[in-house]
Amino acid sequence: MDLGLNGKNAIVCGARTGLGQACANALAAEGVALTLLSRDAAGLIATATALSATHGVHATPVAGDLSDPAARAALLAACPTPDILVLNSGGPPPGDALRFGETQWNAALTAGITAQIDLVSAIIPGMRARGFGRIVVISSGALKAPLPFLALSNAARAGLWSVLKGLSRQVAADGVTINALLPHAFETDRLASNFTNRAKQSNGDEVALRASSLAAIPAGRFGTPAEFGDLCASICNAKLGYLTGQAILLDGGHFTGVL
């Protein structure tokens, strides 16, 4: 299916590996030129080179942290008129709410809310003027069912989506959509590190924690980055302007609620 994205420009944050890289790969397969952000400069250059060679699109690496204003400025200098923005960050350290002090809370909310809103605010006017824009937020399944060991992430992701959900209503008539993807457990480095950290904090067994998590997923497996990336590209479909303000859960049936 032709998504109508050939020749479009995208900024993909957290694109060196994992779900961000999968989204970049799926967009590149549709002929989208990429500007990629990651803190790992060497790894990002390798990713950009591979995507360009595989799909024949231009892929520009920008090394930096999204919470750094200089990195955001560099992104916009490299791609001043993005048609697509994929917001993705690794998330703050895991832990329950009582473990953290003001410094940790402020850092999590700055990186997870204010920095990302600043980038959105910079690109929205151009999208509206051109009559087209797709913003996809890679959030978390914990947005629907907060997990006690992800307290900082719970707060940041809920706050960010609350703001963007409201904004989606303001820009929909201008051809700009804003949607969120809520992954549960996908085979990424982030998932592996979460199991490791939880095992250390609880003096538990990492293998047992992984098995328990897997057993709670009706699909009987963890998700693959490739299927996540394909959905990201799909909701950027140029013909799908009526889908906006939605938080789409990808969890293999894990969530037991009705809504």
Which properties best describe this structure?
single chain
Task: Kindly describe this structure.
The structure is a single chain. The protein has 259 residues and is of the alpha/beta class. It folds into 2 domains: 9-187 and 224-249, NAD(P)-binding Rossmann-like Domain (Rossmann fold, 3-Layer(aba) Sandwich), CATH 3.40.50; 189-222, no CATH class. Helix content is 47%, strand content 15%. The chain has helices at 18-29, 41-55, 69-78, 102-130, 151-171, 189-202, 206-215, 225-235, and strands at residues 9-13, 33-38, 59-63, 84-87, 133-138, 176-183, 247-250. A 7-stranded parallel sheet has the order 3-2-1-4-5-6-7, sandwiched between helices. Strand 5 (133-138), helix 5 and strand 6 (176-183) form a beta-alpha-beta unit.
Rg to the nearest angstrom?
18 Å
**SSE order, one letter for each helix or strand:** EHEHEHEHEHEHHHE
Separation, N- and C-terminal Cα atoms: 29 Å
**And the CATH topology of the largest domain?**
Rossmann fold
**Arithmetic mean of pLDDT:** 95
Second rung of CATH, namely the architecture of the largest domain: 3-Layer(aba) Sandwich
Q: Number of helical segments?
A: 8
What is the CATH H-level superfamily of the largest domain? NAD(P)-binding Rossmann-like Domain
The portion of residues forming beta strands comes to: 5-15%
Give the neighbour order of strands across the main sheet. 3-2-1-4-5-6-7
The global form is globular
The CATH class name of the largest domain reads Alpha Beta
- Chain oligomer state: single chain
